[in-house]
Amino acid sequence: MNAIDNSKMHKDDICLGDLMGVLSAARDCQLIFYYDGRPVKPGYHVTEVKAGQFSALDCGANPEAWTEIFIQLWDIDEDDRTHMPAGKFYAIIRKVTEHVRLDDTARLTFEVSDGVQPMQLYCAAMPTLRAGAVHVELSPRPASCKPRDRWLAEQAQATTCCGSATAAKCCGQS
């Protein structure tokens, strides 16, 4: 099986280690997730954290293997709560690591629902710190064709390399 190189994830697709690194430095700040153009409600819960190791065959008959961590957010209002502190979220994830092996380089997927609408999958952008809070933008996780994605990445690399001033050196020409 070919393992997906998690270090080459899209800019809006961070790994668990990236998120935890930011949260550990901002433990007292509120943690606010945004999806579908709005923030989660202040009473949101982390209802489940799970890790998966996947093996698959893509549409080009290429074997694939990867690890992924899913964090489920229940987007509700509860009492007069404020958004969860980053330190509490950090502690929840660290508590999970006492029972479940979490790979810090694994792809990170958020499952979000308000308990009425069906759960939807999101990837997370790198957290930002502004106005005393940690903000994490979630964007819908689209389906993709891995052979096509690999081909497009190769084309982009060839264009960048061979279209530059260093084309002769890069493309093996003297």
Number of domains: 2
Termini separation comes to 37 Å
Roughly what percent helix? 10-25%
What structural class should be given to the helix and strand makeup? Answer: alpha/beta
User: Shape, please?
Assistant: globular
For the report, how would you describe the main beta sheet? 9 strands, mixed
* Overall residue-averaged pLDDT value: 87
| Content of β-strand | 25-35%
How many runs of DSSP E, i.e. beta strands?
9
Alpha plus pi helix count = 4
Topology pattern, helix = H, strand = E: EHEEEEHEEEEHH
Task: Outline the low-pLDDT stretches.
Answer: 1-9
Please state the CA-atom Rg, rounded to the nearest Å. 19 Å
Provide key terms for this protein.
174 residues; alpha/beta; 9-stranded mixed β-sheet; 4 helices; 9 strands; 24% helix; disordered N terminus
What does this structure look like?
This protein has 174 residues and is an alpha/beta fold. It folds into two domains: 2-143, no CATH class; 145-174. The chain has helices at 16-24, 86-96, 146-162, 167-170, and strands at 2-3, 30-35, 38-39, 45-57, 63-74, 107-113, 120-124, 128-130, 133-140. Strands 1, 2, 3, 4, 5, 6, 7, 8 and 9 form a nine-stranded mixed β-sheet that branches. 20% of the residues are buried. Mean pLDDT is 87; it is low at 1-9.
